[in-house]
Amino acid sequence: MKTHVTIGLENLLNAKSTLLKGARVGLACNQASVDHNFQNAADLFHAHPDINLTALFGPQHGSRGDLQDNMIETEHALDRITGVPVFSLYSETREPTEEMLKDVDILVFDMQDVGCRIYTFNYTMANCMRAAQRFGKKVIVCDRPNPIGGAAVAGNVLDPEYASFVGQFPMPTRYGMTVAELALMFNDHFKIGCELDVIKLDGWSRADWLDETDAPWVMPSPNIPTVDSTVVFPGTVHFEGTQISEGRGTTRPFELIGAPYIIPEQYAARLNAFGFPGVYFRSCVFQPTFQKHARVSCGGVQVHVTNRETFEPVVVGVAMVKTAFEMYPEEFRWKEPPYEYVCDRNPFDVIAGTNQLREAFERGDALETIEESWRAPLEEFKKIREPYLLYR
User: Which single residue of 77, 198, 243, 370 could bond 180 by disulfide (Cβ 3.0 to 4.6 Å)?
Assistant: First the structure.
């Protein structure tokens, strides 16, 4: 029996809609912003008798999630269903402008995150909060479950010198918070300072994975099709900073990892020799249909998670990159800039939020040494996040 969860969107519409009555409402959402009946928030707001929906704001991949690849900008448009203007926040601007907000009193944010720092939606939220503070608007954030749970915290904490649109704040790779908890932390600890309300979940506990609840799941972006994708993502997303395929263009993105020069049996054997709990690396060959190595056979592995509770995705992902770097020194390459329009930094460093991880690989540091370097910053972050946890 799955745990019943009432999501923030439903609590807003059913019990707290008076917060929106009489206001001009903007909504930041995408295709994953659905209720238990898989009705989209934009359509629900448009049909609601007490809500005057005046603007929609879309993140990376578009307000209806139609754009596939990493850095394709989306255009401003009219929503084909509601007829409401859609302003892209992945265009010439990442932040709502004063003109975009001229017909908005309250900006509601309702998006499904993936529980990993290296993902743009949370920073779209932060940018909406900054604009609201600047132009005197109110923000309401509707909470959703963290799909990989709210207990585990892991990875390196971002160095502010490496802040980007895939990592704006000094947080670890896996932060163990919901989107509303993040909003509270961004607003207070990181001093955005907008007028903010959050609409909590009912029924969710920190230990819950999303698919252990009845919360609706729609893929939040084209290469995060399943909750299984989110389980491995905090680790294998690091391959985006290399010329090795992270499985885009396959049916198992972030689970399939490989390149034309990798000998799959040898790579799998080296990875399995680590003895990581909760995971098995199966040697395989795959052919991406687009992006890196499109229509070229790649040797590599599929990451099979056998126990999510013991699996440590960040450590595993870092070990996978490190092992490929060591096994294939002649062929291995870091991705060339730009990444997320950052032109002056190694894309792997942008993704990792530091140059220290790459330099540790290049020095030949042991995996244990790398892990140890994360320990003190992680403990400090746990103290920082504690006041903002809504679910105990």
Answer: 198
pLDDT in tens, 67-118: 666 556 667 888 888 899 999 999 999 999 999 999 999 999 999 999 999 9
CA distance linking residue 79 with residue 316, whole number of Å = 41
- Residue 79, pLDDT score: 86
DSSP assignment of 25-58, as one string?
Answer: EEEE--TT-B-TT--BHHHHHHH-TT-EEEEEEE
CATH topology of domain 8-221: Rossmann fold (3.40.50)
Long-range contacts made by residues 95-101, C-beta under 8 angstroms, separation at least 24? 95/127, 95/128, 95/130, 95/131, 96/26, 96/57, 96/127, 96/128, 96/131, 96/132, 97/131, 98/134, 98/135, 100/55, 100/57, 101/26, 101/55, 101/131, 101/132, 101/135, 101/137
Q: What SS3 state is found at 127?
A: helix
From the list 334, 247, 259, the residue with the least C-alpha distance to 296 is 259
At 281, give phi and psi (nearest 5°): -100, 110
SS3 of residue 61 by DSSP: coil
**In which element (H, E) is residue 299 found?**
strand 298-305
pLDDT tens sequence across 20-49? 999 999 999 999 999 999 999 999 999 999
Produce one character per residue of 15-33: b if its CB has 16 or more CB atoms within 10 Å, e if not.
eeeebbeebbbbbbbbbbb
| Structural domain boundaries in the chain | 8-221, 227-354
Pick the CATH number of 227-354 from 3.30.457.10, 3.40.50.300, 3.30.365.10, 3.90.1150.140: 3.90.1150.140
**223 burial via Cβ count (<10 Å: 0-12, 13-18, 19+):** buried
| Residue 237, number of CB atoms within 10 A of its CB | 24
The whole-number average pLDDT for the span 197-206 is 98
Write out the two tokens for 62: 């578009």
